[in-house]
Amino acid sequence: MGLKKPKIKSIKYEEFQDNESLEKMAAELNANGANVILGAVDDVINWGRANSPWSLTFATSCCGIEFMAIGAARYDMARFGFEVTRPSPRQADLIMVCGTITHRMAPVLKRLYDQMAEPKYVVAVGGCAVGGGPFTKSYHVVQGVDKIIPVDVYLPGCPPRPEAFLYSMMQLQRKIKLQKFLGGVNRKEKKQK
Amino acid sequence: MDLKKRILEIAPETQFVEQGDIKAIVPSSSFYALAKKLKEDEDTSFDFLLSLTGMDFGDSLGVIYHLESTKYGHTCVLQTSTTNRENPELYSVCDLWKTANFNEREVYDFFGIRFINHPDMRRLFLRDEWNGYPFRKDYDMDSNPLNMTNEVTEDKTTELTIDAEGNVIEKENTLFDDKEYVINIGPQHPSTHGVLRFRTSLQGEIIKKIEPYCGYIHRGIEKMNENLTYPQTLALTDRLDYLSAHQNRHALCMLIEKALGVEIPERVQYIRTIMDELQRIDSHILFYSCLAMDMGAITPFTYGFRDREMILDIFEQTTGGRLIQNYNVVGGVQADIHPDFVNSVKKFIPYFRNILKEYHDIFTGNVIVHQRLKGVGVLSKEDAISFGTTGGTGRASGWACDTRKRKPYAMYDKVDFKEIVYTEGDSFARYMVRMDEMLESMKIIEQLIDNIPEGAYQVKMKPIIKVPEGSYFTSVESSRGEFGVFLESKGDKYPYRLKYRSTGLPLVAAVDTITKGGKIADLIAIGGTLDYVIPDIDR
C-alpha cells in the first residue's frame, strides 16, 4: 500500500515540473509502510480534499484581478473544484497570496494564516509574493511571503497568466494528495536507547 | 487677468521660477493668506487643489501646490518651504480645500512636515511607530526592519494650533470616544476592493463617522523612482492603478516627452488614444461586474468578465500582456500594432454595443438596484470639487472635470465625443456615468480606428534620458479620474522627485462625507460606485 504517484486527470505525470520533490515526500511518508485498510481510507480522504480546496479571497493588488478572471466563465476554476472562495479564513483551506505584501500588511497576513484551520496551504502568487518582484528595493515591501508564512507553491509572473494559476492549483492538488492522516504505521520505529 | 501681478500684490516677497512650469515661491509666513485670497477672490477663485506634493530640497523641506479654477480653467503652481529640518512646520490649507486633509497627512508621513491647524496630524500610510520619514533624502533605507507585532489603533490624535502669544502648541483631539460603537471593516474584507480599512462609528445602523486607514499596500513607488532612470520608472506606473495601466504610463511618457520637447508621430497618438479608450472600457466593465457582485448579483459578473476577456485578447495580441501591458515608452510605443488589431477592434465594438443593452436589461432596470442606489450616498458639487474627486464621481455630481476636454492631449481635441455629466450626485448617477462613458469611448475608437496613419511607431531616443532642470506637471484622464504626474528634475538621469496624483485618494477622503447619516449596508454599494483601486491610493 502506501502513497502512490499523485495523478491529475488532465495532465500526464511526466509533464509536471518538479516531480522530484514530490517523490521525495512520498518516499519519506512511505518509509514506514502503511496500514492496508487505513491507507485506502487515506486515499479516499485525499481524493476528496484535493478536489475541493477552498481558497480565501485574499488579494492586495493586480494578481487579484487575474484571480477573479479565473473565477469567471472563460477560465472557470470550477472545472477543477476550486470555485468556492471564502472571505473568512476560518472556512478556508488555502490562501492564495495575490499581490505585494507590505510591512503594514505582514502582521495581518500572519494573523489570517494563523486563523485558518489545519491542514492549510499557501500559494505565493506573482513576483511580489514570491520575492518582492519589482519592489525589492522598497523600504516597505516584504521580500517574499516565505519570510512570514510557509509557502507550498510558488507561482511567478507579473501578473501570472490564468493558465499558470490553474497549473499552480494542480501542483497544489498533487501535494494535497500526498498526505497521511490515518494510514501511517509506527511499528517499525526503533526504541531509543 | 495677470496672475503674477495678482500674487505679487498679496504676497510681495514672492519669487517666480520659470524652469518648466512657472512656479511661485511664497514665503511660509504669508502663504496661508495668499492661498485663502486666491481661493476666495471672485476673479481668481482657485477652488480645486489638483495636487499637493511634499518636497525635500536638500537644505529645506517644502510643499508644492497645483491649483486650478473650475470656473475659469486657469492654473497656478505655488511652492512654500521651511528651512527647519528638525521640526518643520507649515500652515495647513485643509480648511480651504478638503482634499488637503489627507494630502497633508501624506506629506507628514513622508517628510515629517507638521501642519499647523490641521485637526488630525497622524501618519497616513505607515505605522505610527515608524522611524524617520522615508522620503527625506537622508533617510536610512534599513532603519525599519519588518515589524511583525500587531498594530495598535490609537483613538487620539494631535493638532498643532497657535495660542494668543503666537507660539505653536500641541492639542489632543479624539477620533472616537469610549462611548461610541466602532466596528472595523477591512483590511481583509471582500467588498472593500482590496486592502483598505475603515473604522466605522455606528448609531444603530446609521453611520456617524468613518475613518479610513490606508497604507496596507503602500510600496513606496515614488521613493523607488528616485533611484531609477526614466525608462525604468515607466514600469512601475502600470502597477499603480492596474485598471488604468495604459493611461498611467501614457501620462508619464507624455510628461517626459513634454519636458524633452520631443515631437510624437501621429501614428503613436492614434494608437495611444485607442489603447486608452479600450482600457477605459475594460475598467468600466470591471466596475460594473464588481458593483453587481458586491450587491449580490452574480450573473452580471460573468457577463462582464466574458466581454472583458475580448479586450484583454486585443491587448495581448499587440502588447503581450493581459492586465499589465508595459506598452508605452518614451517617444512612442514598444511595438507596432498587430496586423489583426484593427480587425479585432472593429469586431469588438458592434458586439459590445449590442451587449451593453443586455447589461442594462439585467441590472440597471432592476428595482432592487434602484432602491439601493438612487438617492443614496449623495455628494454635492461643491464637496466634489473641494475633495478633488475627479472622474466619474465628480461628473456624477455635476462637475464637468474630464481632463480630455479640459486639457486635451493626444487625439482628444480632434475627435467628437460628449462629456457625460449627471447632476444627482448619488450612487446611481455614478453608476450611469460609467455605463454611458463606455458608449462614448466606443465612439472615440470608431472615429480613429479606420484612420490610423502610416509612419513610425516610435521616435528613437537616446539610451540615457536626461530631463532638463525644472518642474513639470501633466495629467491624463485615467479610468477613474485625473491622473497627474509631477516631476522635479535636477538635470540628472534620475528624477529628483516624481509624484503621482492618485485618483483614488480623494475618493477615500470623501467616503466619510458621502456616507455620513446613511446606512451601514449602503457603505458597500457606495464604495462600489466610487470605484477606487487601492494600490493607486497607497502607491
Sum up the overall morphology of chain B in one term. globular
Named at the architecture level, the CATH assignment of chain A is 3-Layer(aba) Sandwich
Number of helices of chain A: 6
State the low-pLDDT regions of chain B, or none. Answer: none
Main sheet summary of chain A: 5 strands, parallel
Note the topology.
The complex is a heterodimer of chains A (193) and B (539).
Chain A: H1 19-30, H2 36-50, E1 55-56, H3 63-71, E2 85-86, E3 94-98, H4 106-115, E4 121-125, H5 126-131, E5 153-155, H6 162-177
Parallel strand pairs in A: 1-2, 1-3, 3-4, 4-5
Helix pairs in contact in A: 2-6, 3-6
Chain B: H1 3-10, E1 15-18, E2 22-25, H2 28-40, E3 48-56, E4 61-68, E5 75-82, E6 89-91, H3 100-111, E7 114-116, E8 156-162, E9 168-174, E10 181-185, E11 197-203, E12 206-213, H4 221-225, H5 230-237, H6 245-260, H7 266-294, H8 299-319, E13 328-329, E14 332-333, H9 341-364, H10 367-373, H11 381-387, H12 392-396, H13 403-406, H14 427-449, E15 470-478, E16 481-489, E17 497-501, H15 505-515, H16 520-530, H17 534-538
Parallel strand pairs in B: 2-5, 6-7
Antiparallel strand pairs in B: 1-2, 3-4, 4-5, 8-9, 10-11, 11-12, 13-14, 15-16, 16-17
Helix pairs in contact in B: 5-6, 6-7, 7-8, 7-14, 7-16, 8-9, 9-14, 14-16, 15-16
